[in-house]
């Protein structure tokens, strides 16, 4: 593995976003299926504005993306790497128990 010194900051920012429990829950829900803000809010029992804020953060670091379907906006994981990072973390946590 090779990583350039300037990539450490980007990598740290990526992992920082995985350190927030709400963002992890959103990523987990989106790993199962694409969802709109309302659906995520209902599943996590949070306000739509709180979910929208977290999705904006996750979009900014390219962990999630969205597609407009008419008036509805559906969110999904940005790519398979996000699902892989989540799964590796889950596997590690379960292995260390």
Could you walk me through the main structural features you see in this protein, from its secondary elements to its overall organization?
The protein is an alpha+beta fold and 97 residues long. The protein has a single domain, classed as Arc Repressor Mutant, subunit A (Orthogonal Bundle). Helices cover 63% and strands 14% of the residues. The protein contains 5 helices and 3 strands; from the N terminus they run H-H-E-H-H-E-E-H. A 3-stranded antiparallel sheet has the order 1-3-2. Strand 2 (64-69) and strand 3 form a beta hairpin. Helix 3 (37-44) crosses helix 4 (48-60). The longest helix is centred in the last third of the chain and has 16 residues, at 80-95. It is globular, with a radius of gyration of 14 Å. It starts with 6 loop residues before the first helix and ends with a helix. The mean pLDDT is 94.
Provide a compact summary of the structure.
The chain contains five helices and three strands, in the order H-H-E-H-H-E-E-H. It is of the alpha+beta class.
Task: Explain the layout of strands and helices.
Elements lengths: L6 H12 L2 H12 L2 E2 H8 L3 H13 L3 E6 L2 E6 L2 H16 L2
Antiparallel strand pairs: 1-3, 2-3
Helix pairs in contact: 3-4
Q: How many individual domains? A: 1
Please work out how many helical segments DSSP would assign. Answer: 5
Sheet of most strands: 3 strands, antiparallel
| SSE string, helices as H and strands as E | HHEHHEEH
Q: In what range is the share of β-strand residues? A: 5-15%
Radius of gyration: 14 Å
Could you report the average pLDDT, rounded to the nearest whole number? Answer: 94
Low-pLDDT regions: none
> The CATH topology, please?
Arc Repressor Mutant, subunit A
């Amino acid at each position: 593995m090779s990583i350039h010194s300037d990539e450490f900051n980007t990598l740290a920012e990526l992992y920082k976003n995985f350190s927030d429990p709400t963002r992890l829950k959103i990523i987990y829900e989106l790993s199962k299926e694409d969802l709109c803000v309302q659906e995520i809010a209902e599943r996590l029992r949070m306000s739509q504005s709180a979910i929208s804020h977290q999705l904006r953060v996750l979009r900014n670091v390219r962990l999630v993306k969205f597609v407009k379907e008419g008036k509805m906006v559906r969110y999904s994981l940005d790519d398979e790497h996000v699902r892989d990072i989540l799964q590796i973390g889950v596997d590690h946590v379960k292995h260390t128990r």
